[in-house]
Amino acid sequence: MDLSFTPEEIQFRDEVRAFLADALPADIRERVRTRDERHVREDILAWQRILHAKGWGASMWPVEFGGTGWDKTRQYIFENECAAADAPAQLPFGLKMVAPVIMRFGSPEQQQRFLPGIIEGRDWWCQGYSEPGAGSDLASLKMRAERDGDHYVLNGQKAWNTLGQHADWIFCLVRTDPEAKPQKGISFVLVDMKSPGITVRPTRLLDGTCEVNEVWFDDVRVPVANRIGDENAGWTYAKYLLGHERTNIAGIGASRRELRRLRDIATTPRADGTRMIDDPLFATRVAQVELELRALEVTNLRVIFDEARNKAPGPEASMLKIRGTEILQRISALQVEAHGRDALAYSVEGSGSQAAAGYMNLRKLSIYGGSNEIQRNIITHLILGL
Amino acid sequence: MDLSFTPEEIQFRDEVRAFLADALPADIRERVRTRDERHVREDILAWQRILHAKGWGASMWPVEFGGTGWDKTRQYIFENECAAADAPAQLPFGLKMVAPVIMRFGSPEQQQRFLPGIIEGRDWWCQGYSEPGAGSDLASLKMRAERDGDHYVLNGQKAWNTLGQHADWIFCLVRTDPEAKPQKGISFVLVDMKSPGITVRPTRLLDGTCEVNEVWFDDVRVPVANRIGDENAGWTYAKYLLGHERTNIAGIGASRRELRRLRDIATTPRADGTRMIDDPLFATRVAQVELELRALEVTNLRVIFDEARNKAPGPEASMLKIRGTEILQRISALQVEAHGRDALAYSVEGSGSQAAAGYMNLRKLSIYGGSNEIQRNIITHLILGL
Amino acid sequence: MDFSFSEEQQMLQDMTERFVAGRYGFEARERIRASAAGWSPDLWRELGELGLLALAVPEADGGIDAGPVGTMLVARAMGAGLLLEPFIASAVVATTAVARCPAGEGRDALLAAMLAGEQLVVPLDEVLPTPGTIAATQEDTGWRLRGRKPVVYHAPIADVLLVAAHHDGRTALFAVPRTATGVEIESFRTLDDAVAGRVTLDLVVGMDACLSTDAGEALGEAFDRGLAAFCADALGSMERALQATLEYARSRVQFGVPIGRFQALQHRLADMLVQLEQARSMTYLATSSLDEADITDRRAALSGAKALVGQAARAIAQESVQLHGGMGMTDELDVSHHFRRLTAFELRHGSTDAHLRAWREHSLGT
Amino acid sequence: MDFSFSEEQQMLQDMTERFVAGRYGFEARERIRASAAGWSPDLWRELGELGLLALAVPEADGGIDAGPVGTMLVARAMGAGLLLEPFIASAVVATTAVARCPAGEGRDALLAAMLAGEQLVVPLDEVLPTPGTIAATQEDTGWRLRGRKPVVYHAPIADVLLVAAHHDGRTALFAVPRTATGVEIESFRTLDDAVAGRVTLDLVVGMDACLSTDAGEALGEAFDRGLAAFCADALGSMERALQATLEYARSRVQFGVPIGRFQALQHRLADMLVQLEQARSMTYLATSSLDEADITDRRAALSGAKALVGQAARAIAQESVQLHGGMGMTDELDVSHHFRRLTAFELRHGSTDAHLRAWREHSLGT
User: Fold this and answer.
1) CATH of the domain at C129
2) Where do the Acyl-CoA dehydrogenase/oxidase N-terminal domain residues begin and end (chains C, D) (predicted)?
């Protein structure tokens, strides 16, 4: 048993840090730090291009598709260093969701057509899984796709579409056989967002932002060639995708970054000269969450180690999701507490309002990507065997 | 809205306090205070006789049966003052469980025969509800009672029989019709503990004490005249009993007493001269539980007020059970923390070991009398309507 | 012991609930929220006509003196209705403070205008201010007021700011027109959608602007009443958040059944109810304590209530959103607005931690 | 990064688990617990024969130097088996402390006897003692030792007490025969069924009883190793408590189904698992930290582990009993014995709060 990284891994980490210090544009870093989303599409794609130029565009892809071929440990180091350095999060919908499906189940033509746009930072993808009536219970989705010659004709509605307002492509689960049992009649198709009949309607959120959308499909024609794999076999691909979505699910890097921010706030003297950190109750809450984060780092490394030996991501990722999101949510609540009344000034640009925005926005963490209740069901059934 | 007691109620409370100061024997009080259970039968019955002599033997009974006829508020004041003064808790199995059933469903003969022994402190009753396989799911009980002329012949086993080792009588739920649906074939019978064929086997508990027993019935003959109400209608009486069991379920008096004890421990200087109460983390936990107790007192009064107007004890008692037991359990855990290492010295007589004994023993609070999980089910179904 | 409400109290509650139902539905509120002003002066006048702005004022001063319980019921209904108007700041805190200042022409006229809804008077503070935040110095022509308050709810829409300022170890109270030269207000919206401002004062006001040179007690009383009403506001908000969550749990179907049938969610809803009822009890206790003569006991009850209600507010707000799933994250349902109101609750009128500490010091002396 | 165990480590674990399974079943343990001695000297010798008492000692001193990880695996298996014998006190803390004292006839002979299981040596302390608790003063014929320790695990069954005593600002270490005149031990059982005693010392020991006049570092090292092993012991106990609860949930039928089918209980069991795995991670971290040169970082990892494992221990102990219902309250199942062991865990080797404070001070500097 050895918890430390190897000298090679430490060298790699230092290389990543040096690269981040050098290559991450200051203005992008500043906008990420201040939650300024006005240029989110440009920033994310620009950063993707910078990474791609370095050969690091897809840390989780195999070399044959242009990925780095890194092992899980290096992926972990890379993602957490990026997050800690306020780099924009790489868009997961292309890189981590649809790409693994295309690599595994797509035709060579599909692979050549779609993968380069993702890694090179040209195409913005979004997800078309959830529907208003099908969230946790994904298999109850209703969006129809009727065959018409070489095309499917799509009608229906997708919901909780994150950042789809910027998207070039959307991958959709659609119902191609309405007679079949829920999980049997589903297909997996790739849809050009410029197709006639698509309407994107932003949903205003709790924190006032518009991060997710409803996407309406009204007789949208999609070439059958854009279907992945077999007709009505989409559920298999969907589950494969959901398994890959769960990489770096603990969000250690983001929590480290926010914890650092929390400590900055709490150690800055307030108007009356006192510091939050000198309140033992508050300091203990900060120390407690830092302790749990430290434990989760080790837990995360344990899961990575086991996955590397067993090859497949297991249900242990559910533990990382639950505790990782709880920790980040608690840090964000502590940031609000540390600001006190200043956090009320919401429409004022400043750290107080940023903390409040973060607190409200991050309530999503325990809801999306498989709610924490669903994760507990997974643990119950797949680990505890109940 | 007026949260204070009336001048008459305050006068009554002072009268109870004066009586307790005067009439509660010092040795009994001391044994209650130190959790010394060696004379538990004598102490409880002696105290019952003292109360009865004062006319206060049954605070919750109507006057016609020798009770005080007090309203719910006076009952509340009385019980909490007694608990706070380290009086022995009156045995609930006779007074609060079987007596209401006898008064409501028993024959005049049964009332004359059984009630005086309860209120006068002569008869010790215990409960024969639970069985090893029928705890939360009481209706699945199995103990058989077969008719043989003027008698029932009982065979089977009861569990979680509290203090039955001292008992003169036991009230039992028995299955008189094994063919009927679970809740239909049950009868309610009163059994003399001296009957041949009864074996009481104590169960050693978590804290090393023997507070509960298994009671085995081997061809025990019980006169049919000892059956309450109709044959096979026992489930109705059982539910009536369970409704009455829930009086003073919040245990405010006990929590107040233990909180006082906690404060005594925490404000006593330790060997090194420091006091636990000067640790802000610990002090805040004490203050927090005291705050919740204060809120629960008001909640309890609200429930009493509503019950007085609606007559029947409602599902709100489940809230009192959940929060009341959580609070008392937390206070007991804080007592252990306040003693620190001294609480480890378990077989030594002293406050440290008493705190540890209390902590372990009181884990039962959230399990018995309808586990807190069952209480949440009740709230879900009867209050929230889910 | 009596937990019933008098006919008059019940009437006040019904009236407020009718007002909320009739004037403050989701769409109506959204329009007010989206408006440039961020509140409705029309509805404010209507509240004045209903007498709701005169609740906290003695009858001798033209008020209706509804007492702590009446105010509690009104505030609860307004919290349930997510009112954006400055009811507690103006009609509880400011009226109480002004009414307790020595009678005089300026004070009497101001009070009358407040009750009628003609003058919106808003205090700079929600708790007794730390000495020195705003300093008052007497000059030949009047008083010089200097200082700064970073977050003042409703300041940009007030006609008059109620300024507590220290001089010679005492707290004096001033009525300062918002538009006076030397009053600067940087306006913003708060996280719960109120209009608020950063207020900087540097001006000389006339002698008649001073309502009292020794207003410490009057202000203490005003903030106490405001705090109790604020708890009631949160209580109403929590009630609605729980109710909305229960309705959602009954209607939202996943895996073929309403999610309210999943026991893990049921037990969490049961715990929310317990927390709500505990918060209700402390709100009742805080309200009752306002008639308590012993100021130490009163402040303990109020601090205890603020702390416990704050804890319940956080838990219920978080769980309500969580159990709504994605829908809880949108601003299309009441629940997210209650989340924000309850989040703000913890930060206003003294934080949860500050009040828990005050309760602890009262209870344990350490 | 490598979370696998070496073949030697795996062998140690298997050996200990076989020992527990063969010698320490529920009935066997009950007999030992009920015995007057409260432990089994026979099994202790057997542990010596297996080499398990020599784990923490360098090979040069006749030990097998299994390293922190080996010790962790053995301690975990012993916690799972609810061992009553003084493994950590004697075979981790005492051996480490003695082994780090200057070589010499007395120290060498004592160590050899300890490894063989012939002499049971038990330290008075579990953390570095506050100066002055036991005072040492040099006299003509030897050292006078005076002081008192209220709760010393295993003291009544020890052959030799390892006494840390202060003199001239330093900590000296003494080997004191338990039966020496001037050693008084009031014997009792602890809440987790160990034999313990209140120790009062007032005697003069010979010069040769002093193992080191400056043992602060050796003791610190010993207590650090003891603390890491103690976390591992709790980890084993928690694993078994959770496992027992899962088995109970699968087999116990209420309302026609196993209670493990009730979702509210399922989610609580899932949370228990998460806590267990977090505790495991911190135990690994604490164990690794023993090879950490920087003593501040090491102590932080150890304190963090003790605090987090303590929190998990309480939660898992309480939930295990609760989910067992009435059966959890009896001493007829393992679960109540794990409850007691885990309750004791929080109180020993420094409390959860004390270690959380130490972690906080290291992490935040406040």
Assistant:
1) 2.40.110.10
2) 6-118
Are A277 and A353 within one domain? yes
Domain identity same for B69 and B136: no
Q: Has residue A298 got a pLDDT over 90?
A: yes
Which of D108, D96, D41, D97 lies closest to D66, judged by CA?
D96
Chains that touch A (3 or more CB pairs under 8 A): B, C, D
Task: State pLDDT tens for residues B348-361.
Answer: 888 899 999 999 99
Which chain C positions have a beta carbon within 8 Å of B295's beta carbon? 278-279, 281-282, 285, 304, 308
Whether residue C277 and residue B319 make contact (CB cut-off 8 A), yes or no, is yes
| Among candidates A278, A280, A376 on the partner chain, residue whose Cβ is nearest the Cβ of D270 | A376
The string of DSSP codes covering B140-159 is G---EEEEETTEEEEEEEEE
CATH number at residue C115: 1.10.540.10
In a domain, C1, yes or no: no
- Domain match, D340 and D239 both: yes
Q: Is D254 on the interface with C (CB under 8 A)?
A: no
Q: B53 lies in which domain range?
A: 7-90
B245 annotated active-site: yes
Residue C293 has pLDDT above 90, yes or no: no
Do A223 and A264 lie in a common domain? no
Q: Of the candidates D39, D85, D37, D337, which has an alpha carbon nearest to the alpha carbon of residue B208?
A: D337
DSSP per position, C89-101:
IIIIIIHHHHHTS
Element (H, E) at B128: strand B125-128
Are residue C40 and residue C179 in the same domain, yes or no? Answer: no
Same domain, D99 and D138: no
Residues C129, C114 share a domain: no
Please name the residue of chain D whose CA is at the shortest distance from the CA of residue A373.
Answer: D267
Q: How far is D110 from chain B (nearest CA, A)?
A: 29
Distance, in angstroms, between B278 CA and closest chain A CA? Answer: 12
- Using an 8 Å CB-CB cutoff, list chain B residues near C245: none
Per the structure, how many domains does chain D have?
A: 3
Options B81, B245, B258, B316, the catalytic residue: B245
Q: Which of C66, C97, C120 is the endpoint of a domain?
A: C120
| Cα D270 to Cα D364: distance, rounded to the nearest angstrom | 31
What does the pLDDT look like over A236-284, one tens digit per residue? 999 999 887 777 889 999 999 999 999 999 999 988 899 999 999 999 9
- Which amino acid would we find at residue A183? Q
Q: What is the identity of the amino acid at A299?
A: T
DSSP D126: S
* Marked catalytic residue, from A81, A211, A245, A337: A245
Residues in chain C within 8 Å Cβ distance of D263: 262-264
b/e sequence B306-341, b meaning 16+ C-beta within 10 Å: ebeeeeebeebbbbbbbbbbbbbbbbbbbbbbbbbb
Calculate how close chain A gets to B281, using CA atoms only, in Å. 6
pTM of the model: 0.96
Least confidently predicted of A187-201, A242-256, B214-228, B317-331: A242-256
| B383 touches C: beta carbon within 8 Å | yes
Say yes or no: D287 contacts chain A, CB-CB below 8 A. Answer: yes
Q: Is residue A178 part of a domain?
A: yes
The ipTM of this complex is 0.96
Its domain, for residue C192, covers 122-214
Same domain, yes or no: B294 and B377: yes
How far does B138 lie from chain D, in Å, by closest CA?
Answer: 9
Pairing type for strands C160-167 and C195-206 reads unpaired
D24 contacts D85 by C-beta, under 8 angstroms: no
Separation CA B46–CA B26 (nearest Å): 13
Collect all residues with Cβ–Cβ distance below 8 Å to B334 and sequence separation of at least 6.
Answer: B262, B266, B282, B285, B286, B289
Whole-angstrom distance, CA of residue C351 vs CA of residue C156? 24
Structural domain contains residue D347: yes
Q: List, as one string, the DSSP characters of B331-371.
A: HHHHHHHHHGGGGG-TTS-SHHHHHHHHHHHGGGGGTSSS-
